[in-house]
Amino acid sequence: MIEKLYFYYTNDLHSNFDQWPRVAKYLKDATSKREKHGDAYWTVDIGDHMDRVHPISEAFKGKANVELMNDLHYDIATIGNNEGITLSHDELYSLYDDANFEVVCTNLHRTEVGNPNWLKRTVKIESASGIRIGVIGLTAPFNNYYELLGWHISSERQALEQYVSELKKETDIIILLSHLGLSEDQAIARKFPDIDLIIGGHTHHLLRTGEKVNHTLITAAGKHCFYIGEAILSWDHEAKKLVRQEAYATDITHYQVDPETETNLKSLQMKADQLLGDTIVQLEKPIEVKWFKHTEIMQQLTNTLKNHTKADCALLNSGVLLADFPAGKVSYKDVHRICPHPINPVVVKLDGNELIEVIRASLTKEFMELKLKGFGFRGKMLGRMVFSGITVETAFHVNGEEYVKNVVFEDGTKPDGDRLYNVATADTFTFGRLLPEIARSETKQYMLPEFLRDLLVETLQREFASTL
């Protein structure tokens, strides 16, 4: 007899709650169908369900996300970097206390004694017919962040070598929930053929019908839950082996919504508004935000960044602020709306030549108009760079292109190629190739758990509060 096992999954929702009622409707319909036919099925999440860009996740520090997953009867989840490194140590420690599902993250460890009760190294599930399934969960190793928060991510290869061999003896099928990214999933599939299915995320890749690497099927459903994933494993009871693996990602952007979930989200939004609604500052007049022009608010925020980090200089892109501040009472909700990014301050060491190159690159039209997606940035485009601790003089070529004419520190000296400077900026630029000199710096000091918006609150209260 051939029995099919069904796995429905979500990955990288990033608190896109506009889409969640469709997710709810799809999962309710799909699981109801499985119930009707007596099929074995499970619902799992691959991490980054939470993103503090949304006021609900900000207000409840991710616990509302867990509540929403409980409502849909999730069975298993692993964590992504947004759960792992955008919360304080205590907030992550208690995040899943009320989860009605298992949380598996094989490579997450608390640096002090005593992991949270919800944290499992592996999870074993079994179908009604007796098929034994072992589940491993892995998350991306951002240890520069985790270790500042009292956690550690161990080697995924070592974790797999230990637990795959253990599960091979105790289960019939092995599944990996991987918040590592597609290239890592492919490498794991090549090295660990005993893993039957890898359900992936993190790099927001969409595999509509999966990808087979040797024996292992890899699948993922993009980002923001515009797609829902389904994996189907066919087990031959007579041969006692897996005989087929299938994967599908279904576009649900035009699917019906679940009214109950919509109502729950409206209630959560009202509660979030209340939690974030306290006034933090009274403004006598509006504060203007411009992405391509120098503004007082960006200058003062960059000054705060320099002072907070005690760096030699600081640079911050104007696109981190999304809208003007109106006159009158300003709440934390307003600050979150205007600066929603889960971006931390960071200090990197650059020599004088590298610093000049960073300044030059940041003032190019291509950089300023870049519509960045990811690396913590949740805005529209990067915008003009603002500096503190250094004066940057620019001029224009006859073709209208801006160039850096002179760079001088506050003490009148120019950047020295033989000297290292502490440069404060947004941690966004330590990833990828936006500003290669910053990304390549061998010394990066991340400031956690504070976000840029925490420095923005300080700036508003110190520099812009009404004296009336």
Automatic annotation (TrEMBL):
<dbReference type="Pfam" id="PF00149">
    <property type="entry name" value="Metallophos"/>
</dbReference>
<dbReference type="InterPro" id="IPR008334">
    <property type="entry name" value="5'-Nucleotdase_C"/>
</dbReference>
<dbReference type="InterPro" id="IPR011240">
    <property type="entry name" value="Pesterase_YunD"/>
</dbReference>
<keyword id="KW-0378">Hydrolase</keyword>
<dbReference type="InterPro" id="IPR004843">
    <property type="entry name" value="Calcineurin-like_PHP"/>
</dbReference>
<keyword id="KW-0732">Signal</keyword>
<dbReference type="Pfam" id="PF02872">
    <property type="entry name" value="5_nucleotid_C"/>
</dbReference>
<protein>
    <submittedName>
        <fullName>Bifunctional metallophosphatase/5'-nucleotidase</fullName>
    </submittedName>
</protein>
<keyword id="KW-0547">Nucleotide-binding</keyword>
<feature type="domain" description="5'-Nucleotidase C-terminal">
    <location>
        <begin position="289"/>
        <end position="428"/>
    </location>
</feature>
<dbReference type="GO" id="GO:0016787">
    <property type="term" value="F:hydrolase activity"/>
</dbReference>
<dbReference type="InterPro" id="IPR006179">
    <property type="entry name" value="5_nucleotidase/apyrase"/>
</dbReference>
<dbReference type="InterPro" id="IPR029052">
    <property type="entry name" value="Metallo-depent_PP-like"/>
</dbReference>
<feature type="domain" description="Calcineurin-like phosphoesterase">
    <location>
        <begin position="8"/>
        <end position="205"/>
    </location>
</feature>
<dbReference type="InterPro" id="IPR036907">
    <property type="entry name" value="5'-Nucleotdase_C_sf"/>
</dbReference>
<dbReference type="GO" id="GO:0009166">
    <property type="term" value="P:nucleotide catabolic process"/>
</dbReference>
<dbReference type="GO" id="GO:0000166">
    <property type="term" value="F:nucleotide binding"/>
</dbReference>
<comment type="similarity">
    <text>Belongs to the 5'-nucleotidase family.</text>
</comment>
